[in-house]
Amino acid sequence: MRAILLAAGCGTRLRPLTNNIPKCLVPINGRPLLEIWLERLAEAGIGPVLINTHYLAEQVEAFIESSPYRSHVTLVHEHELLGTAGTLIANVDFLQGEDGLLIHADNYCLADFSAFMQAHRQRPSDCVMTMMTFRTDTPSSCGIVELDERGVVVGFHEKVAAPPGNLANGAVYILSKNFLNRLAAESRNAVDFSTEILQQCVGLIFTYETKGVFFDIGTPEAYAKANR
């Protein structure tokens, strides 16, 4: 299974750490975040991987060129950011008409990707994708999902004061080939995956809850926690 790894963001919430290093290369216990992602995906047999670049792109290019994953990775530079949906739509052909992963690389994730893919294969027949979820200690700062008895999303609660629970969207998805085939035709002008596409799929999103380590490292506090 192929994957698109979204890694072009500027990491503004992590400044000044990201003043001189792209967010996808910040170190977690001495290892670049992007290296951890590529290692985890390769261990699960996922690939090749497409990575979009923008902010300090030359550092990402140099990292990939010197990494053992260089033959496994396609880099696509965005002179202007296309947005999470825009990048997916622009590069949907990379997934070759099959199910594929869409991953936000600004998370520190040690999930079992083999189990995630197995859950996707066993999803209800009407579901067009499978979303990775995780339990958070700060639900008001996350996108909380509400599920039915089948584990299918029936509601989103994005950064609200008192969400109904602490099960959060991990922004890691396996998208079915049927969904991807319709995407460009039905949403060709979409920019943001969460607000413009995901919201339209309520009732059609299966979920897999990871028990592995999962942190959104977008803030200095979360980044410090990941390093601990």
CATH classification, class level = Alpha Beta
Q: Measure the end-to-end span.
A: 32 Å
Helix fraction, binned, reads: 25-40%
By CATH, the superfamily comes out as Spore Coat Polysaccharide Biosynthesis Protein SpsA, Chain A
Overall morphology: globular
Got a strand count? Answer: 13
Biggest pleated sheet: 7 strands, mixed
Count of the domains? 1
Strand content: 25-35%
CATH architectural category: Alpha-Beta Complex
CATH-defined topology: Spore Coat Polysaccharide Biosynthesis Protein SpsA, Chain A
Low-confidence stretches: none
CA-atom Rg in angstroms? 17 Å
H/E element order: EEEHEHEHEEHEEEEHHEEH
Distinct helical segment count: 7
What does this structure look like?
With 228 residues, the chain is α/β, with parallel strands linked by helices. The chain has a single domain (2-227), classed as Alpha-Beta Complex (Spore Coat Polysaccharide Biosynthesis Protein SpsA, Chain A), CATH 3.90.550.10. Helices cover 25% and strands 27% of the residues.
